[in-house]
Amino acid sequence: MTEQQSTPQPQLPEASSPASQNGGAAASQASYTFTAPDGTAALRRRQRVQTALLLVVAAGLGAQWWVSHTELRDLRSEVAQRLQSGDNSSNELKGVLKAVQENTKDLQAKVSVLDSKQAESQSQQLALEQMYQDLNKNRDDWALSEIEEVLSTADQQLELAGNVQGALIALQNADKSLSRADKPQFIAIRRAIARDIDRLKALPTVDIAGIAVRLDSAIGQIDNMPLLVDEKPVESASEPKPQRVSASPAPAAKAANGKNAKGKAEAVQAEASAWSQWLAGARETWQSISTEMWTELRQLVRIREVQTPEAILLSPGQAYFVRENLKLRLLNARLALLSRNEFAFRNDLASAQDSIAKYFDTRAKQVQTTQALLKQVQGSNLSIQLPTLAESLNAVRNYKARH
Predict the structure, then answer these.
(1) CB 170 within 8 A of CB 157
(2) Rounded to two decimals, what is the model's pTM?
């Protein structure tokens, strides 16, 4: 049993004799018999190595799957965010595109007006060139051509900028030029010019400078106008202040103390009367003190109904910007007044009135004065239908066409 369990040493076979061959076969059989456990161990080690490799590969695949899943999730979130930002940008782009389209329509309308004016100016330029070519033909034609050019320019300024004074000066200069010629054939032209002058002089005058001065005065008063948030509790003048009553001995008590000779009954009666008077004085003193304390406590809390709660919650910085925005509104109204843009003028004044009613204390005298001033300015009429110089121009052109 001991020899079978021991590990045999390998024997080298001898090739010279059959016995050695038989012995070699037996040795090889014995070697196969005893090397079988080593093959099983190697197979097991190989299986363990393969299992370990499979586990490593599985762990690597799992880690790669987890990394890929994380990257895919991040990529999805990033794509979703970019899609959301793309949608927001698309909406903003749509709004901008709509505004651009509206502006383009306005520009196209203005360009069409400018094209018509340019065509008119080109025709006038051609007419001017023709006039310069015919300068030597007739002095009257030259004078009439100059008058026509001046009246045409004044008519354009009157239509585009509302320059009434410029149109009046142009008409008066044309009438003076025709009067110096002293020819009866110019009477019809002078009559037409006189009618245009009368129409321009009959126009209602708009005190642009006076309105601008009133707006400047309103702008100067904004810094002194109290806001609703600046309001402080004021002591009511109708509530009289309680006066303290000092407890002092009554004259009856002093008289009772001074008359000790009248007897014990009178002294007791005097003491009782003094005590009752002292109690009455103490009661009055307590009532006056309590009334004064109650008045002070009532001034700590005030209840007021306000239509715009945000006006009470203004910070000092916001109050500064409220005043500055109101000034800008009035300055814009002043610019619109000088450019004769009545729509912008009235819109800015209405916005300024709303801001004053919303954020300022309308009970204050400065605020009421500014509101009255703005109402007076808002009542000014800027929409004046301006005439044209067509009659004078037609008279000059008809005369030139006949002659």
Answers:
(1) no
(2) 0.40
For position 138, what pLDDT does the model report? 66
Contact 151, 171 (CB under 8 A): yes
Q: Mind listing the pLDDT tens digit for each residue in 312-358?
A: 656 777 888 888 999 999 999 988 887 777 888 889 999 999 989 88
